[in-house]
Task: structure prediction
Amino acid sequence: MIICITGLGLIGGSMATDLKRRGFARHIIGVDNNTSHCEVALQKGLVDEVLGLDEGVKKADLIILSTPVDVLLELLPLVLDLVAGSGKVVTDTGSTKLKLGSLVNSHPGRKCFVAGHPMAGTEQSGPSAAISGLFDNKCVILCDPEKSDIKALNLVERMYSALNMEIIYMQSSSHDVSAAYVSHISHIASFALSLCVQEKEQNEKRIFSLAGGGFSSTVRLAASASSMWTPILSENAPPVLEALDAYIHQLSLFRDNIASRDISKLNHLIGEANKIQQIINLQIQ
Amino acid sequence: MIICITGLGLIGGSMATDLKRRGFARHIIGVDNNTSHCEVALQKGLVDEVLGLDEGVKKADLIILSTPVDVLLELLPLVLDLVAGSGKVVTDTGSTKLKLGSLVNSHPGRKCFVAGHPMAGTEQSGPSAAISGLFDNKCVILCDPEKSDIKALNLVERMYSALNMEIIYMQSSSHDVSAAYVSHISHIASFALSLCVQEKEQNEKRIFSLAGGGFSSTVRLAASASSMWTPILSENAPPVLEALDAYIHQLSLFRDNIASRDISKLNHLIGEANKIQQIINLQIQ
Result:
């Protein structure tokens, strides 16, 4: 199978590596407006060749769109125009799904599109950060599967199986709310923590010295690129704002109980917070 | 040298392991009110024997207090009563320093006490979580060193050198503010994130499925024990409240700019947040 990957970043590059290595793809075409990304992808052997969008789509059986979500809004309708009626399949890897889905709901090529969101990544970006095994044993969300042709859906399912991912099905609206709570707020929490510490502590050496107490882990996501995250937060604004208000509310509960030195309530809040680890551990085992 | 470690948790247990293994301690006495902690510490070989507090202190050259900070407030004056004038040295590993220091400032045994805070840990607790190498290449803060006898200070410095830690000197008040910003807020941020997600998402399986996008890293600290953290947050309330307000302010900036879809300001905020990674990487290299 020939695959065209548009957007040679961490996600697109890591998919390319394992789809080729595991024999799912015979030939991988890379498409990216960023010429240095194309060079790195070729040098690292992530892709076999680099082409323009039209040419890449024309040559491929499966087209994977792994650009930032604002670019997807422009790209998907164009690509669906190119593939409608051809039997080619298109999928995306975007972190928000409702707006993109609404945009193409009445497009004649809608049924050859499968909306996907592989839940994997690191705080790094670009093809130089691409790694093999990034998706292994993680989950991918496929949204609104009833809107895709069954053959298209099956092809994308087989692709994610080749990446060793567990497939979950959700409606776009539900996906976007859950993603806001679980993924998007984690990033805002980390960005804000970074800003807060940098503003207070001008002594960089001291930030580092004190960072052993858990700071590094919590602030890791603060290295995530604005080119990816500004479009996500802006596009998914309604659920993100709801989740952010809920987060600020929980922080305010801590604030009030610290101010009043309410030991019993603080113990209760922390005890409830502890339960998240049981949920995550339970599922990993 | 004979060392008495009071509080056989993650920190005390991990110190015991490496101080013995690296030859700094010839004999380690464990003291803990929790009998199951004592049993685990003996079984794991973290300590050579378990004694009561008076007996342990009497037999030791160096006494390390590694209990939660609320217990330290009761324990330190008692231990200083026992050691005053004996040449024995006492140190602690507590995460807040000002209140404890103020409590013993006029104690006749003050000079044999060295206030310390090794900046290392995990979200786990208890002696079963104790590991060798926990402190390697991390920093320890020694507070108000001018208030300690030079011989006592030197002994504690040598101990932390045996643990491969870099020593930083700070005043207690300054330590507590920095710790609030860098360590304590990270924990509250993580606790609140856990509560926020659990409240919204009753489907545990779905939390786990979506957790690949960075959630696990940010929420890791939410497993931290309330027996340790409630006393820290309560005792260090003034700087923690200041830092928490600053954190909520930064979150509100995100909220406002997401609500108004201000792409330029969101890009700027995230770009500034990204800089924390340069600081941490820069210092690690």
Summary: The first helix of chain B runs from residue 10 to 21. The domain at 175-284 of chain B is CATH 1.10.3660.10 (6-phosphogluconate dehydrogenase C-terminal fold). Chain B touches chain A through 97 residues (CB under 8 Å). Chain B has two domains: 2-170, 175-284.
